[in-house]
Design goal:
- Chain B: It is found in: Periplasm.
- Chain B: This is Tol-Pal system protein TolB.
- Chain B: Belongs to the TolB family.
- The complex is a heterodimer of chains A (about 375) and B (about 450).
- By secondary structure, chain A is mostly helical.
- Chain A is built from 15 helices and 3 strands.
- A 3-stranded antiparallel sheet of chain A has the order 2-1-3.
- In chain A, helix 2 runs antiparallel to helix 10 and helix 6 packs antiparallel against helix 7.
- The longest helix of chain A is centred in the middle third of the chain and has 35 residues.
- With about 450 residues, chain B is mostly beta strands.
- Chain B folds into 2 domains: about 160 residues, Rossmann fold, CATH 3.40.50; about 260 residues, TolB, C-terminal domain (Neuraminidase), CATH 2.120.10.30.
- Chain B is about 15% helix and about 40% strand.
- Chain B is built from 4 helices and 32 strands.
- In chain B, strand 16 and strand 17 form a beta hairpin.
- The termini of chain B are far apart.
- The chains are: A mainly alpha (about 375), B mainly beta (about 450).
- The interface between A and B is large, with 74 and 55 residues.
- Strand 3 of chain A pairs parallel with strand 1 of chain B.
């Protein structure tokens, strides 16, 4: 029994020790893993680059990274890819200066997707056009997990444009030299650099369309990773801020600060004419010398909130003339909405016309 | 750590943008400016006033008709036919069903009621509604008077409605004195007559023995100045409207006096006097004090005070042709205000003080026109073979004048026109009429 007991006890002790030790290992490794991921991606990218180089540059879409900042630049890139990503790429190589930079950048973004989805490359092209989704891409960037990244890419394609913009900068130098593999790794290591490059590259990028082709896509991934490795927290914070800004813009509109595009000239003119038709002017009266401003609120269906009409300014006559001018304006506003069953205004811009101020100025109608 | 800081800075910068953007996009409400509207009569519903008692039915009908005629006659209102009414008005209530009136596009609604008291006096009540504002326009009012004055009761209602809608005082409860003419053109008799502004209730103030011209109401409407040729010489008389008695004005011996007009205070009188062949303008003050206001070799006549009594506009040919001049009420240097082609005469200062009406003869045609008191913005409102002698409605909105047709059978008649040049129409007067002068609003 003693022996058995001892054996059992020692075995348990060993197990406990292992568990404890194992736990320690696990904990520490955690941070490292993320770095490892980055590296992996770069390798695959290389593979992808070697093959499809030309064609898939388009895939770059990955964009996911942190495209947000340089959306503007991206737009241009997109178009290029679509046309014929492949052909373009090659030409680029020739142009040493620009091409290099371009290829590198774009490819970089793609890399990520590439690894898992060499096939995606083709998709990429189409994606790039979607640039519009851009917004979505931004969110993706935050998702540091590489695995996720892959997914995002597929969807995110849109972001590409954006993503590319940032990447370009970084990759350019390194990527240009196809040699790559190694370099790519390096890039991963310098997330911070990538980020910094992003801003500048964005603006320049757009022009280097030829570079487009440089599908080497791989590079793209790099940027994403860079972000992760370097400062996932920071990026996520930025992303959060951006999304928060959008929310603020929306809620701001709800609070009175109109969001979205204002009424077009045509929309305003149509509204003005609608009220004008009902404004009856007595050119021989003193009220014809009065300019009066009337403010009122409207419901989303284009109707005037009856008791909201109030005079905000008036000039040019006696109190009685001003009162008459105000009443004429009020009748015009109320009567024309009645005839039309509410004013025809774009509901999606309600925030812009929820409150209206109409100035009735009979100057041009006065008797001369 | 450097990078995170960079991001933080960027994040902060971005965070600030969305707040600024909306402000840049639009500040405050949607603003539009309308500088051109439509000029058309305002649709108004005037259901027959409710008769409170069978004996009031006829009065209600007649009073309602006069109210409608008054308002429509201005050219500013269009009465909606009762056939269009969705529901008849059978009670004089403080509220109405606005929906029914909006449906027929009535912008204003006048409801009223008429009752006859045991002593025969009439009581007229009315309310005015701003249909599209779903609210009454002012409070209800009522007027009471004898049956003889039923038209005045109607005019009072019309004035109140007009005033509330236009912001200006009315002119319906007013009278017009004029020269009623009869006989052939070469032997015409002329005598003073007075009527309601719309031609009703005409009465003669003088007999047909003498030739009378240019009557003018006093600011209170209780006296009339006019020129009579009954002595062979033009002589100014003052007629008391209440007693229909007259007295000649004390003027320089041997002078011909004409073209009189009261000062705004109703006490002083300005007129033209031809002494030794030269016409100038004089002022006669209470007590008989006479002051010569002009002293020129030319003909100065047709003086008219500004509403504030500080200036006088008159006609003079000192420049070679009759033109209009303005001088201080106490006399002194006059400045010419008419510079257009043709001849200008009979200027009359508007009760509002902003315009001067005049007669203009140019290229064989006569016009009634208006201009600013400085002579600017001259506008001719009419044109015909012979238009002359403008007089302002008490609110300065309408001008009445004489129009005479051409030819041996030409006859004078009274016409009125809105100061905007619209709504030119003939005043319904029995017989030939000329030289109108509008009274102030009656009280």
């Amino acid at each position: 029994m003693d022996t058995a007991f001892i054996i059992s006890a020692s075995a348990h002790a060993a197990l406990i020790a292992l568990l404890m030790l194992g736990g320690l290992f696990e904990r520490e490794p955690l941070p490292a893993p993320s770095v490892a991921d980055v590296t992996v991606l770069s390798e695959e990218e290389f593979a992808a680059l070697t093959r499809p180089e030309i064609g898939d540059p388009a895939p770059e879409p990955e964009v996911e990274p942190e495209p947000e900042p340089e959306p503007a630049a991206e737009p241009e890139p997109e178009p290029e890819p679509e046309p014929t990503p492949e052909p373009t790429p090659e030409p680029e190589p020739a142009p040493e200066p620009e091409p290099e930079s371009e290829p590198t950048p774009e490819p970089m973004p793609e890399p990520e997707p590439a690894p898992s989805e060499a096939p995606d490359l083709p998709i990429a092209p189409s994606d790039s056009p979607r640039a519009a989704p851009r917004v979505s891409s931004v969110p993706e960037a935050p998702a540091p997990p590489e695995a996720e990244t892959a997914e995002t890419r597929t969807d995110a394609v849109d972001p590409d444009p954006t993503a590319e913009a940032p990447d370009p900068v970084e990759p350019e130098a390194p990527a240009a030299p196809p040699e790559t593999a190694t370099e790519i790794v390096t890039e991963d290591a310098d997330p911070g650099t990538t980020v910094a490059g992003a801003a500048p590259s964005t603006s320049a990028r757009p022009r280097t369309r030829p570079a487009r082709p440089t599908p080497p896509v791989e590079t793209p991934q790099t940027p994403a990773r860079t972000a992760e490795a370097a400062s996932d927290n920071v990026q996520s914070a930025v992303n959060d801020t951006l999304s928060g800004l959008q929310d603020m813009a929306e809620t701001g509109a709800a609070l009175g600060a109109p969001a979205g595009p204002p009424l077009s000239f045509g929309e305003k003119e149509a509204f003005r004419l609608a009220v004008r038709r009902c404004w009856q002017v007595d050119t021989g009266s003193e009220s014809a010398n009065v300019t009066v401003s009337i403010r009122f609120e409207m419901t989303p269906d284009g109707r005037v909130v009856g008791d909201s009409l109030r005079q905000t300014a008036a000039s040019g006559g006696s109190d009685a003339a001003i009162r008459s001018a105000f009443e004429r304006g009020r009748r015009a506003i109320l009567r024309c909405q009645n005839e039309n069953g509410g004013y025809q205004l774009p509901q999606d811009k309600y925030a812009h016309w929820r409150e209206v101020e109409v100035t009735f100025n009979p100057t041009d109608m006065r008797m001369r | 750590m450097g990078l995170p800081r960079v991001f933080r800075v960027i994040a902060l910068a971005l965070a600030a943008t969305p707040i600024a953007l909306p402000a840049m996009a639009q500040d405050g409400p949607l603003r539009i400016e309308i500088t051109e509207g439509v000029v058309e009569p305002l649709p108004i519903a005037i259901p027959t006033f409710v008769a409170e008692g069978p004996e009031a039915a006829e009065w209600a009908e007649r009073i309602t008709q006069v109210v409608a005629d008054d308002l429509v006659g201005t050219g500013l209102f269009r009465r909606i036919s009762s056939d269009a009414f969705i529901a008849p008005v059978t009670e004089f209530t403080p509220t109405v069903d606005y929906v029914n009136w909006k449906a027929i596009n009535a912008q204003a609604l006048v409801t009223g009621a008429v009752s006859v008291a045991s002593d025969g006096s009439l009581t007229v009540k009315f309310r005015l509604f701003d249909v599209f504002s779903d609210a009454p326009l002012g409070e209800g009012l009522q007027f009471q008077g004898g049956q003889d004055g039923w038209r005045r009761l109607a005019h009072k209602v019309s004035d109140a409605v007009y005033s509330r809608i236009t912001g200006e005082s009315g002119y319906f409860d007013s009278r017009v004195v004029f020269v009623s003419e009869s006989g052939p053109k070469n032997d015409r008799s002329k005598r003073l007559a007075v009527m309601d502004y719309d031609g009703a209730n005409m009465q003669f103030l003088t007999n047909a023995d003498g030739l009378t011209l240019a009557p003018r109401f006093s600011p209170e409407g209780d006296r009339i100045l006019y020129t009579s040729y009954e002595t062979g010489f033009p002589q100014i008389y003052q007629l008391d409207v209440g007693s229909v008695t007259r007295i000649p004005l004390p003027v320089p011996d041997g002078s011909m006096t004409f073209s009189p007009r009261y000062a705004p205070d109703g006490q002083s009188i300005v007129f033209s006097a031809a002494i030794n062949g030269n016409s100038d303008i004089y002022r006669l003050q209470p007590g008989g004090a006479l002051t010569q206001l002009t002293n020129a070799a030319s003909i100065e006549t047709a003086p008219s005070y500004s509403p504030d009594g500080s200036q006088i506009v008159f006609e003079s040919d000192r420049s070679g042709t009759p033109q209009l001049y303005v001088m201080p009420a106490s006399g002194g240097e006059a400045r010419r205000i008419s510079f257009g082609p043709g001849r200008y005469g009979t200027p009359v200062w508007s009760p509002r003080g902003d315009l001067i009406a005049f007669t203009k003869q140019n290229e064989g045609r006569f016009h009634i026109g208006v201009m600013r008191t400085d002579g600017s913005e001259e506008r001719l409102l009419t044109a015909s073979f012979l238009d002359e002698g403008p007089t302002w409605a008490p609110n300065g909105r309408v001008i009445m004048f004489t129009r005479e047709s051409a030819g041996a059978d030409g006859q004078p008649a009274l016409y009125s026109v809105d100061v905007s040049g619209r709504n030119l129409k003939r005043v319904d007067v029995d017989g030939m009429a000329s030289d109108p002068a509008w009274s102030p609003l009656l009280r």
